[in-house]
Specification:
The protein is built from 1 helix and 11 strands; from the N terminus they run αβββββββββββ. The chain is of the alpha+beta class.
């Protein structure tokens, strides 16, 4: 094969290769669409069902366990009940106003921040909203 034929073949296959790569990229994009963040708002309970400085454990419709803590007349916090150390279930201690993990002595303040023990990160928290007498919790989910 001469140099001229090799160059001619190369110039023929470059556009075909580029087109094939483009079609492959479009196909992959179609098969694996970009995930979007969606915010879910769920009703938790009525405000009178949760006295000030009290807590209540609830389970989300998707099976996620949460602890609601009313820290003030118009303030309710929602946190995961799963300790960030080894996944044990934390409990609210009303007299100390903090969460306690019985497995290894981890302690979290009312905002979910670590104050003692081995947990490496704070508890997962979720925004809440009071609308009249109703408490709502917001979750961010990835949907494709």
């Amino acid at each position: 094969m001469e140099r001229r034929d090799a160059l001619k073949n190369l110039l023929t296959f470059i556009p075909l290769g580029t087109a094939f790569a483009g079609i492959t990229a479009i196909g992959l994009r179609f098969i694996t669409p970009k995930k979007q963040e969606v915010t879910r708002r769920i009703f938790a309970l009525h405000l009178e069902e949760l006295p000030v400085n009290a807590s209540r454990k609830i389970t989300d419709l998707r099976g996620k366990d949460l602890m609601l803590v009313r820290t003030d007349n118009q303030e309710v916090k929602a946190m995961s009940t799963v300790c960030t150390h080894l996944g044990c279930t934390v409990q609210w201690e009303k007299d100390k106003q903090e969460f306690y993990c019985p497995c290894h002595g981890g302690r979290f303040d009312k905002n979910g921040k670590v104050i003692a023990g081995p947990p490496p990160a704070p508890l997962d928290t979720y925004p809440t909203d009071l609308e009249g007498d109703n408490i709502f919790i917001y979750f961010k989910d990835k949907n494709g």
